[in-house]
Amino acid sequence: MDTGGLTLLFGAGDISKVINLSVAPVFLLTGISGMLNVLSARMGRIIDRGRRLNEIAHEPGSPHAEEVDNEQGLLAQRARLIHLSFRMCTLSALLICLVIITLFIGVLWEISLQPVSATLFMLALVSLSFGLLTFLREINISMGKFRFGKYRVHGQD
Question: Would you say 57 and 128 are in contact if contact means Cβ atoms under 8 Å apart?
Fold first, then answer.
């Protein structure tokens, strides 16, 4: 079939191969969507805690005011990390989508896009890795300040 000078010649076997090749990236997309769900939930908790702290009536200069201010600073730092992690994981998902698209374009137009697909896939993994490391940093900050009564979960008191 001719469409404006581009000849699209492909068989059912070629498309089925591309679908088979795209299964692994699709599973990775599923994992990333789970990660985005976790990040959204954590961001929601951070925002809810920040709102609660904003509602707490306190007198400026009191020890309680200083505690609230310190916790708000920590929440702001955690929110920045979650936001960065969210962006990196979303970028990774978008790159995975581009990998799948290049697989289909390569078959449909009979051009070799394997180096492009491989590069996009590696970039997706780098972005996902960075997002996961950023998430780990946020968890460490969170756990570093959390207490069970007088006991810290992480770090020393």
Answer: no
- The residues, any chain, with a CB within 8 Å of residue 86's CB and separated by 6 or more, are 36, 39, 40, 43, 131
CA-based nearest residue to 93, from 131, 57, 63, 60:
131
The mean pLDDT values, 10 residues at a time, for the chain of 157 residues are 44 72 89 97 95 76 77 94 98 97 89 93 98 96 76 60
The 3-state secondary structure of the chain reads CEECCEECCCCHHHHHHHHHHHHHHHHHHHHHHHHHHHHHHHHHHHHHHHHHHHHCCCCCCCHHHHHHHHHHHHHHHHHHHHHHHHHHHHHHHHHHHHHHHHHHHHHHCCCCCHHHHHHHHHHHHHHHHHHHHHHHHHHHHHHHHCEECCEECCCCC
Residue 109 CA to residue 93 CA, distance in Å, equals 24
Q: Residue 87 corresponds to which tokens in the numbers above?
A: 């962006």
